[in-house]
């Protein structure tokens, strides 16, 4: 158990687990939404889950990926999904709630994290969610042949602490992703970046090097490179089904903009395509970005 004191000085204990890499994972209640829980790893909020309403997506970037999932196929239609990065299974829960009967594979490197989340935040019994343990890229490249070319959705949300490892940011990696997708399939990538957006621009350039159709969703302040945050990049071998995406993004609590076409070309403008030889980790955020309001934490 992880201990802290609340605003009244009362000692509070939260479920916790030490992961294989030595980082501490805790699950804490969302102080602003009753019944919701937040998974925090090494001080970084990784996932938000509302067990009573798994269609509720709290984190800005997760809501944007959720919109992409909603537009991928007719409402309620089951899909086949691969999630690279498990966290607290927020998006697998969302897919199951909005598209019952979907077949889902979750790849998570830390089996201890999976066991911890399953114990404290159980998955729906009816869900067809299979967990594969291991490195995201290695597992992706060894998926059963029967699934190759048949996946509707791949979500790339891989982090070691607060940074994305370099080997899941390269053109070679995204070609492996393209190899499992159906012709209409969609890949959604969570890209964390800060001032200048050099990493996000490079990721957009890399996706555009591999996929014919690419779009980026972010709030205007991020696009102006004013602060650290998350950009969501979408890509497909087919035209993205995003006619209504601008309206959905504009209606979110934190409004976002969809960048496509010439505007996307200007956004990429000269950014280098990342390869296995040149790829780098995403930049590290300042600790204050993910500051958690605590008192006398122990």
Automatic annotation (TrEMBL):
CDD domains xrefs: AdoMet_MTases (cd02440)
Mitochondrion is among the record's keywords: no
Keywords, in A-Z order: Polyamine biosynthesis
Gene Ontology biological-process entries: polyamine biosynthetic process
NCBIfam families hit by this protein: MFS_SpdSyn
Annotated PANTHER family: THERMOSPERMINE SYNTHASE ACAULIS5 (PTHR43317)
Official protein name in the record: Spermidine synthase
UniProt source species: Herbiconiux sp. A18JL235
